[in-house]
């Protein structure tokens, strides 16, 4: 089903009895949105902190923060229904990081359709380079998770800070003061160059390489003035696709 971003509620509700550190786990939940770091004893010296914005709810079973309230506790059911963000609209086929959360991602079947949202388990972050959810050890500092910026005066493409393959564009609507963030992806082997405001293919070596966003095209890499350069070429027949194994244009069999 299409993915929807759930934003955090604005109030926190504590459990009737605040749990104490007992030496069995390094972190425990003290509320729907708060956790206690069990650094040692005596108990009053253990600090508490709020869950981060992108994972606002504490999961009492794991002690990690999550995007979903812990429904096993009645107190969490009192949290006001979260606001809903605009649907994620796809700009191409493949995986895309969630521009609003580091712990979820989308898969797109094509352009201009809502994406399918996938949520990482509590305590995990999405790694767009590996296309996997990676566990974040509790004793480590939280992974970098920068908030994407949209400024009314800067209607330009901007690099996604966690992976140079991706970049984004802020789409404004006069009827809605909140811009929609459109995530875009460069071809496999390419990265976004902010100075040029476009994707640049990085030649790994001399030869021919498929263009992942358009199977009728390919990159020709060669040396010029002691450095690699490339040319983007098309197959001679529009119905053909470039075979990256055979390194030739072929007609796909139905």
TrEMBL record:
Coiled coil: none
GO cellular component: extracellular region
Domain of life of the organism encoding this protein: Eukaryota
Domain Chitin-binding type-2: 87-142, 147-199
Molecular-function annotations in GO: chitin binding
UniProt xrefs under InterPro entries: Chitin-bd_dom, Chitin-bd_dom_sf
One Pfam short name: CBM_14
Protein name, as recorded: Chitin-binding type-2 domain-containing protein
Organism of provenance: Aedes aegypti
């Amino acid at each position: 089903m299409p993915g929807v971003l759930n934003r955090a509620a604005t109030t926190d509700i504590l459990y009737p009895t605040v749990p104490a550190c007992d030496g069995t786990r390094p972190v425990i939940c003290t509320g729907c949105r708060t956790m206690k770091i069990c650094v040692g004893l005596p108990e009053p010296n253990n600090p508490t902190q709020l869950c981060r914005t992108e994972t606002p709810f504490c999961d009492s079973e794991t002690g990690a923060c999550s995007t979903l309230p812990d429904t096993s506790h009645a107190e969490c059911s009192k949290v006001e229904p979260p606001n809903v963000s605009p649907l994620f609209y796809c700009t191409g086929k493949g995986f895309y990081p969630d521009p609003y959360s580091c712990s979820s991602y989308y898969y797109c079947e094509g352009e201009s359709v809502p994406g399918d949202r996938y949520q990482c388990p509590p305590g995990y972050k999405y790694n767009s380079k590996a296309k996997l959810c990676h566990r974040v050890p509790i004793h480590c500092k939280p992974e970098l998770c920068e908030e994407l910026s949209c400024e009314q005066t800067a209607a330009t493409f901007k690099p996604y800070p966690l992976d140079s393959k991706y970049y984004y564009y802020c789409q404004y609507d006069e009827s809605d003061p909140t811009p929609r963030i459109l995530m875009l992806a460069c071809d496999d082997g390419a990265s976004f160059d902010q100075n040029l405001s476009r994707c640049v293919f990085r030649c790994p070596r001399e030869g021919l390489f498929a263009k992942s966003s358009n199977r009728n095209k390919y990159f020709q890499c060669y040396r010029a003035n002691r450095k690699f350069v490339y040319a983007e070429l098309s197959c001679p027949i529009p119905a053909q696709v470039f075979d990256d194994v055979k390194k030739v244009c072929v007609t796909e069999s139905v």
